[in-house]
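note to self: dont lose this again. the chain is below, predicted strucutre after it. 492 aa total, dont forget to put it in the shared folder this time
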Amino acid sequence: MTLLQTASKYNAESTSETGQNIPNEHFLWYNLGSIDITDPDTYGASMGSGLSENQLLSYMVRLNYNYADKYLLTVSGRYDGASVLAEGHKWAFFPSLALGWRLDQEDWLSGVAAIDLLKLRFGVGVTGNAGVGAYGTLGNIQSFFVPFGNTAVKAYATNEPYYTGSSVQMANKGLGWEKTTQFNYGIDYRLFHGRVNGSIDFYHSNTSDLLLNMTIPTLTGFPSTKANVGKTKNIGIDFALDVVPVSTRDFNWTSSLNFGWAKDEIVELQNGKQDNVANALFIGKPIQVFYGYENAGLWQEADAAEMAKFNANGYKFTAGSVRPVDQNGDYEINDQDRVILGQKRPSISGGWTNTFSWKGLELNVELFGRFGYMISTGGEAQLGMYAQRKINYWTPKNTNAEWQKPVYSTAGGDNYSGLLGFRNASFLKLRNLSIGYNFPSKVCDAIGISSLKIYAQGKNLGNVFSTVDFIDLDLGTTYYNRGVIFGVQIGF
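---
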């Protein structure tokens, strides 16, 4: 039996001072008193400070039972309290149960020489999430200055659009834990004297009381609130395999492959089985989706008759413009034409690592990928005024283009240019490539050290393939941050 108690506290203090037009540039930030802090228009002087605190307290008990090294049982329970949740909802209990069966220890399987280990596993447990900001359940206010006579007086309010540029959420006095109950079925194996080993897991989970930002009527004085709303479910498979394909006196090759597939689905929201379109939450669909207009590429001269029907309703489509899809055929592009475009989370992610060693030489190759999701690149504004990467855009002589024609305007250009930025995303990249040499022990002994290795390592070197060629889908950047490292490891 194991008993455990933990307590954690997060404390963040901040201070800030700003100023401009400092008399002497060599003062830097060390002499802000040299400016007139009563003249903010000239010197922009301001100061601020802040404090944020939250705590988490946990009690846990765990009981392990092992019978004949064949039948394994683990029972545990946690009692957690989070200060960020509402009064009366801070504490919750999270139990779990795990069973294991070592089949390789059974008499009817113990004589199979190829099997080193074979274990079946079953587990069920409840976990919690209290991932909300501090003080969100207490009700925040903002300060600002308002004219009163001939002076400005500090005032306080929740949301005042005439004087504040930001807004705060409405406090939820019933905000509690988000809870997930998960069932896991797995198998662990080790075969051929350790040459092959790995695991396969299948899981399904149900989450209730999701912590979500919810849009609420503005007549409440707030734009949104954090609430425990709805239910989701999730299923997935995790696979891991480690093998030693070749092992000789001088040459060894080890290979590790792992991947996971997952699918989530919204089961219920705050209004039961009714979609929450304002927050892009839909019953029976993944939690994170893109919701908007589909595009049918670009308008062409041959579409003049069809464009005229839209333009008769006030649109200004021309050849080379982005062509949104009119889902209901009424020649209007409005909320009735918005659809689910794709999911934001990858369906599959995984990696493959291979290590080759020959005498003192060692080569390591690591591949990583994500598959089956969608990203939004924002499209290409094509305003004709700013730095623009080289793209294949529409012209009368290049009608089979990827992007719309340029629009020389400060008003935002093509209103639907962002639709071309939605891309189906999948990639497999070379994350790491390293080569090294381990010097023989006799060389190390001669110079009085225990080990010596020189190596070169390349990180984020490039893609094996990618569905989007102008973005690093792994890091989400428009540039590829490649790096090369040269190093020496010395052991004493």
